[in-house]
Amino acid sequence: MGQFIADHPDRLLPADPGVRDIARSLYKKVEGLPIISPHGHVDAAVIEQNSPFPDPAALLVTPDHYVTRLIHAGGVPMDQLGLGSQPAGSRQVWRHFCEAWPAFEGTASGFWIRQEFAHVFGLQEEPTADNADRLYDALQAKLSEPGFRPRELFKEFNIEVLATTDDPLDSLDSHAALQADPAFAGRVLPTFRPDQYLNMAHPAWQDNVERLISAAGEGATGYAGYIKALEARRRHFVERGAVSADHGVFTPYTVKLDDGEAERLFELGRSGQAGPRERDAFEAHMLYQMARMSVEDGLVMTIHPGSFRNHHTPTFEAFGADTGHDIPVAVNYTEAIRPLLQDFGTAKDFHLVLFTLDETVFSRELAPLAGFYPAVYLGAPWWFLDAPDAMLRFRSAVTETAGFSRSSGFIDDTRAFCSIPARHDTSRRIEASFLARLVAEHRISEERAQELIMDIVDASPRRVFKL
Amino acid sequence: MGQFIADHPDRLLPADPGVRDIARSLYKKVEGLPIISPHGHVDAAVIEQNSPFPDPAALLVTPDHYVTRLIHAGGVPMDQLGLGSQPAGSRQVWRHFCEAWPAFEGTASGFWIRQEFAHVFGLQEEPTADNADRLYDALQAKLSEPGFRPRELFKEFNIEVLATTDDPLDSLDSHAALQADPAFAGRVLPTFRPDQYLNMAHPAWQDNVERLISAAGEGATGYAGYIKALEARRRHFVERGAVSADHGVFTPYTVKLDDGEAERLFELGRSGQAGPRERDAFEAHMLYQMARMSVEDGLVMTIHPGSFRNHHTPTFEAFGADTGHDIPVAVNYTEAIRPLLQDFGTAKDFHLVLFTLDETVFSRELAPLAGFYPAVYLGAPWWFLDAPDAMLRFRSAVTETAGFSRSSGFIDDTRAFCSIPARHDTSRRIEASFLARLVAEHRISEERAQELIMDIVDASPRRVFKL
Amino acid sequence: MGQFIADHPDRLLPADPGVRDIARSLYKKVEGLPIISPHGHVDAAVIEQNSPFPDPAALLVTPDHYVTRLIHAGGVPMDQLGLGSQPAGSRQVWRHFCEAWPAFEGTASGFWIRQEFAHVFGLQEEPTADNADRLYDALQAKLSEPGFRPRELFKEFNIEVLATTDDPLDSLDSHAALQADPAFAGRVLPTFRPDQYLNMAHPAWQDNVERLISAAGEGATGYAGYIKALEARRRHFVERGAVSADHGVFTPYTVKLDDGEAERLFELGRSGQAGPRERDAFEAHMLYQMARMSVEDGLVMTIHPGSFRNHHTPTFEAFGADTGHDIPVAVNYTEAIRPLLQDFGTAKDFHLVLFTLDETVFSRELAPLAGFYPAVYLGAPWWFLDAPDAMLRFRSAVTETAGFSRSSGFIDDTRAFCSIPARHDTSRRIEASFLARLVAEHRISEERAQELIMDIVDASPRRVFKL
């Protein structure tokens, strides 16, 4: 069989021997640097409570929609993957995963999971239908060891900063507890994520707005109370260490409405009478308002547009959101984001990180925007694009226009805690590969490439996310 | 001059010596496998009647719009290429082709034709203005040999399955004759292609609909008879061995209308009163209906959207359709195909193969869709994208999200019978090249790559097209 | 430190040793060929007057929006880069540039400037904050030498043809003087650029139109005078040696209006009453009219669509146009350009060169259009795409459909006179790199690649631009 490929020291590095040598030496510079994760979806309570992970399926399969989706495409129903009201048991879920493993060949998830097997759990085997039960038992045994609890892994993974994603009304008590705990040395930061308070089309919007105003409106009512409450909750996040506010929108359309019009739309939405045009206008106005607040309170603004959420209604109704059928659409940034940039594109210390699932905007819109506006940073390849070839396409598409200084540094965006080291390691290897090619083509010097990779991996995320 | 490049054993394989060695060994695994061609445009009567091909121009130039278009771009009028009411003679057409040959350097058609020269006709020469007449005579001599008749080439090419593309009212007699002929061992299958019966904008739609209802409506009339007749003709195709129904649409927009509304639009169209909005809605409804019928009768559904047909009206009027000026446009799948997928995306045994001429949907829409919906398969790179670099871009764009298990296998889609081996060989070499890079980068093991290439070339088309 | 990378003989060539050897030999064929620059923004008066360039910042920084934009993105205000009503002094601008130099690593501008340093000015140093003043003095000393005047550099750069871009009412006196000057051997050609006379949305349109009609309407008034005047000015350009007319439009939308409707829109615009729909229709009509005139007078027509001009209004108001915030948008060519191609796509000797900032149209629209219509040529990668990786993506995207014969040859499009040799050299190295890969993959023969690179670099621009 030969070596388990997750153990190969040159994995993901370029095949050409000369370029590989350069890449290897660049990678060595950053291999051991601490992990900075300024955006992701790990739950702070998991770290705070430090409870053992329950079982292999609950750790690696059920909550990770990258994984469940591809098994589902192969014909396994969602309930067999641990979702829904009558989910299959963990061992059964795990068997489905092991049988489906060949479908992950060549995928980003396949690389990460193989890395986790080898480097977190010390397993040198590919999952198969035959070894499923044995692997389950081996992993279960590991998970009950004290070294595999979240806080121990946090340290073992060499994570310096981990940002979570939180509801505006979240108490952030877990964050406070971690910050107050002298036994925990890491930084776990909240992120303000107000989508469901800004987008009238969300079923919970009306209820969210009432709760928001009543909790944080400081006595003000209506639109004024709503704005005041958002500002107050952002302050609360800042006090708990937040560095950014994150916005998931269908389009990055922004607009500046006057207060009267904004209030009119707000009241239409509150009474359930806003049509699609009013809802879109209000959301665009609130994205603009979020930028204004970021300019004022210093939270870095990140925008993730272009995902058609919950594409398959029957799956959404039976199994909820984030179950693998958020499907990208084409994005227009240049015209949509312009009203925001007109007013804030050169605002002092404003940082706006733009992400995309639509690769076509990398060279066409994002690199040109980030290459002019001091506020704009190129978000790292995200979601379906957070994979080796896509990362190389990203660098190729943006570097010639925007260089290296305008990008955000790697973002893992993950719910899968144990995949964090594999994801960051993948990014470091790919950055080394891209730079190595430029060195081999005499486009940058090797000395400069060594400085650049340090900047990309370590200094960029600190600078862009104000860490 | 050195070796004729069409004879080089490493043609199309990667330049890096290490990667090439791996690619060569992967290619060897599949080089000799039989050809499975589940979608194309060869006429079944050509195989059935087994008449000699008339002459080199009629075989290689005039009917192949990939070829005529580029000669036309170089300034040669279409009638000089054998088209229209007063076409030039074959020898003259051939001379134009030979003079234009340098323009094919680097094109997909150039590779295929060079392969055909070397491997079908045993010619080791590049066409030139000087050798045009000599090549014509040499090819003409070959074409009159018994070994160069369609059935002999079918066997020589090692074709196991060849699907044709047929009008819903076609008798399929040639298919029946071939199936009944003990002297013919191949499978030649019809494909149901109803575009001109579904799209009211087609000039023949009204006439087609009347003929359809009268031929197969089983006594029913109006919209009910129309639906009944389509179902009946699909059954006829299934009985004649069809495995798929193919749909060429401008957009993949789908909608489910209730019967009353569908009937209303149908009657508007029938009386010539439907406007563009009604026509589009009806076509979208019928695409949805075709999916419903595929769920019921088991025909694999293939969709080819995004081609602006007959872009240059004067050429269309003088020389007809399929004369090289169908030009792609941007495609939106995520929202357009959603109504169909809501209802049939997880339907048992429903196979929906999605093609595109717009590369941007590979990573943005098709890989995410195929990576969730059990019904959805990624169509192989099609038409302008059925070429080495484009195939590599396809694999790079889709694999990290959807792996290898969700793609259709190679589709040659050709009218040019003698190009079939060259096209499939190109695909096999490129699949080997892509996999070899992943092996060299330690992203998959060489053992697994050997299994994958067998699956891609042989098992995938059988599985996806239910062969 | 090792060798200064701008001096490496293999710079920009592929890393693989075998491919590099082939690329090097192809590059050698064209390395010394004269420069043909059929489209750019150098001012003819600069050549005519042959005044020394004032200082390093005025030569390399302030007028080049590729350079100022990225320094601006790093936080330096535009006035500090020499723009606006109270600009910083040259030495201060130069210091900002040197401090910002690391941000140019990996960018196209970075390559060009490094090449200029090494090959125009004989400097082997990277700019830094520390050596800024010393470099400034060294460059300033060079600029005062007689060998560094524009005409001497023109000869030194081996420029054979240089096209400028000119206002329709420009006298073209500098061009006439150069043509009449026996001491100047180069060809400096004007280019007709009428955007601000065609697009009613331009603030100067009304005034331009009045001046145009009065200067060249030959007594006719209104729309008839306007058309007559445009035709007359084109004739004037042709007499002064112009070979092309260039059109910068937001979209390539074209339409043929009848004279009555065109006149109606024209008068609406003239009286300031045209709305957005009327303005767009009139511009589309005039783009069609420009094609008609090109068919008649033989000027090659070039179209550059898809740039959202002056994206940041505050910067535009303070510092004017062409200050780095023209941002691309998605383009649709297939449907938009169709009315023009219906009537002129096969017109005798009509040459239409289509450019794009939206890479997605390379394979989807431009290669298919240029692969059918004799009039259509693929414009070289332009603006944000005029860089090594983007050029390789262009060739990969278009060649398999359109071959090499349908592209325009390299276009430098530059305002930065001293960057011309570096830009053309970059293009030659990249064409050699692309062809070398095809040779190494046995897709074209080395003999043929040697002919092709000569054709691409030298014969194509002469043929396409009728030089």
Architecture blueprint of SSEs:
The structure is a homotrimer of 467-residue chains.
Chain A: H1 17-30, E1 35-37, H2 44-49, H3 56-60, H4 65-73, H5 90-100, H6 108-120, H7 132-143, H8 150-156, E2 159-163, H9 173-180, E3 187-189, H10 195-198, H11 205-216, H12 222-239, E4 244-249, H13 259-270, H14 276-297, E5 300-305, E6 307-308, H15 313-319, E7 327-328, H16 338-344, E8 352-354, H17 360-370, E9 376-378, H18 388-402, H19 420-440, H20 446-464
Structure, described:
Three copies of one chain form a homotrimer. With 467 residues, the first copy, chain A, is of the alpha/beta class. The first copy, chain A, has two domains: 5-51 and 149-464, Metal-dependent hydrolases (TIM Barrel), CATH 3.20.20; 52-148, uronate isomerase, domain 2, chain A, CATH 1.10.2020.10. Chain A is built from 20 helices and nine strands. In chain A, the strands form three sheets. Chain A has a four-stranded parallel beta sheet with strand order 4-5-8-9, with helices on one face. A three-stranded parallel beta sheet of chain A has the order 1-2-3, with helices on both faces. Chain A has a two-stranded antiparallel sheet with strand order 6-7. In chain A, strand 8, helix 17 and strand 9 form a beta-alpha-beta unit. The longest helix of chain A is centred in the middle third of the chain and has 22 residues, at 276-297. Chain A is globular and about 65 Å long. The relative contact order of chain A is 0.14. The model of chain A has no long low-confidence stretch (mean pLDDT 97). At the A-B interface, helix 4, helix 6, helix 15, strand 7 and helix 18 of A face helix 16, helix 17, helix 18, helix 19 and helix 20 of B. Chains A, B, C: Keywords: Isomerase. Chains A, B, C: One of its GO terms (biological process) is D-galacturonate catabolic process. Chains A, B, C: Belongs to the metallo-dependent hydrolases superfamily. Uronate isomerase family. Chains A, B, C: One of its GO terms (molecular function) is glucuronate isomerase activity.
